[in-house]
Amino acid sequence: MRGGIVDVFSYAYEKPFRITFFGNEIESIKTFDIETQLSIEKVDELKLVSNMNFSAQGSKVSFLELLPKDTLIVSKNLSLSLDGIENFYTKAETKYPTLSDAIKHRKPEELFISKEVFLKDYQTFRTIDLTHNPSSDILQDWAMLPQPSFHKNFEMLMEDLEQKQQEGYKVWISFSSEKQQERLEDIFKSITSSSIEDGIGNVLPLGGKGASFLSSLHAGFIDNENKIAVYTDHQIFDRYQRFKAKNAFAKSEQLTLKDLMSLKIGDYITHIDHGIGKFMGLVKVNNDGKTQECFKLTYKNGDLLYVSIHSLHKISKYNGPEGKEITLSKLGSPAWKNLKNKTKAKVKQIAFDLIKLYAQRKTSKDFAYSPDSYLQNELEASFPLRGYPRPRKSHL
């Protein structure tokens, strides 16, 4: 493990895997060569399989036996999972008699569990199976309703909150930003003395009418069974939820109007997905019978990329070291993505190193100097004291 990079060796594959994380999310999974450390192939998933014949102390247990008894298990198409377990177990039983006697292999029943054993353990828990083919006897009515429309009628909103509270509901209001919370707080204050308490980010009382938290929920809902109501600020204020693009430059890095006006043909542009290209001007492109203006960018080997004016958040003016020759990126090549991943990993590593350094500084003990001796005092007293004009004025 190095920063946000984890190398994994699975007995199910010939080559190891390198998993790159971005925070808590997996950004990429690639096989790599142990000797050269170079990536070989990008994959979407992998199976972590241990050395099943490793002779460890103790007996093997099912994964389900390790879970607390009050665990809620949510499965997707349980029947398919059971079929997979049965097929795997059958293959193991068929393969076992044909294995070489030179290596002592464990019996299938010592390594794996059958479909029947798994289902028996599974049914001891509270479960939810998300399936496309539910049977009539397991249908569940969740008694859910969408958030009611208030059409900016805040007196109606407050009456609804009071009614929900009297009926024993827990009411939550989701805010997309602190400004939105302050806005609703000011409106509530103008109507009544009730207000949202400070401290957004933690779940806090909402003037006796609910609780608030920061989130970007798409829509509110009412759960009548569990008596929970969750409202969103954008539905309260009758506005569309603003979509935030994940792959976008920071606002300070995006093209401003000043940048657009100063762009010249031949200037270098950086696209967050495709890398460094050259700006070749604004052109009109016909797309499904509709004409729209696009940025025309040229890349290595003369490849062209047309960027809609609605996607300008993905490009920025190239900002690199002066005097260095600029190399255009190649469309379709993984080089730019690899460079981004390496840069992110390097930045993360630097951040981890800084955190470690400051932690060491905080826990380390300072050097204790001895108090001044009479020799130090005599040396200090031997220097004549001369006042400077400005300090002398301030003393006066």
Automatic annotation (TrEMBL):
Q: Name one GO biological process term.
A: nucleotide-excision repair
GO MF entry, a single one:
DNA binding
Any Pfam family: CarD_TRCF_RID
Q: Which GO terms describe its cellular component?
A: excinuclease repair complex
User: What UniProt keywords are attached to this protein's entry?
Assistant: ATP-binding, Nucleotide-binding
Q: Which InterPro entries match?
A: CarD-like/TRCF_RID, CarD-like/TRCF_RID_sf, P-loop_NTPase, UvrB, UvrB_inter
- Put simply, this protein is called CarD-like/TRCF RNAP-interacting domain-containing protein
Species in which this protein is naturally found: Bergeyella porcorum
